[in-house]
Amino acid sequence: MEILLDPQLWISLLTDAGGPAFGNRRSLCPYLLNFFEFNADTSYRRRATSSFGSKEAPMGIRILRILKIFLGSLVVGLSALGCAHTVVVEIPPKIDLQPYKTIGIVEFTSNSDEKLNQIATQKFMGSIQNAQPNLRFLELGPEDQLVNKLGRNSMDIEAIKAIEKKYGVSSIFTGSFQISDIAPKVDIGTNLSSLRASAVVNVSMVSKHWDTVSGATIWSNSRQGHWKVAGINSTSKDISFSMTNPEDQYGRYLEELAFAVTDNFRPHYEKRNAPK
Prior knowledge:
Layout: H1 7-17, H2 28-48, H3 53-83, E1 86-91, E2 103-107, E3 109-110, H4 114-131, E4 137-142, H5 143-149, H6 157-167, E5 171-179, E6 183-188, E7 194-211, E8 217-235, E9 239-243, H7 246-261, E10 268-273
Parallel strand pairs: 2-4, 2-5, 3-5
Antiparallel strand pairs: 1-10, 5-7, 6-7, 7-8, 8-9
Helix pairs in contact: 2-3, 4-7
């Protein structure tokens, strides 16, 4: 069975149905359904006069019915697309920090140097302030120096309560991150046809939010990620090599982790169908 569709007919039908306003979309379905019904009838009559008519005509009709069902679904989809109206709705953050008048933040600790500790702290604080503007932070400095000023040996519950009395903050953030050694990774293709070698570094970050009156933990979260710092791709035809200095990239890694860790303080947006 062969169905010939005039290109000009398709163009005119789709143009009428798919314009910016979809103004003529309701006229598309009857035209095309009548068109296929006409072809089905003529095809059936044409096949019935041949020596194979009794066998081929039912199959042709079934195919046309499938095409009509598909076309009907397409028209419904176009109509829905033309009629549907969506709006962007803001979903408030899971945790609202606005009730806290002043929030303390202790410099993050790590297995790295002091400069990266400061960078991680600033990235973390900046992510929260970008999510919830007008928050007031009081930077309390490195943790070891802070606990010495409080007369404590570690950041325990009593130290948390002492911070409220000494600095007048209603809550504090603490955090830490760990940077792994650069680790090699090798993948060998089947039949030794290719070789891929890379070096990756893993960085993890954890943070807690404390209530300074009770010393209770209000919130905690952690994230980790790995980044490629060098790579070699080799095939039977060529070899490629790439490398980045991890020391120059740690600030970006920490920024990405801080953004992920602070997701609960950030509003989100989603599309929803508008009420009729």
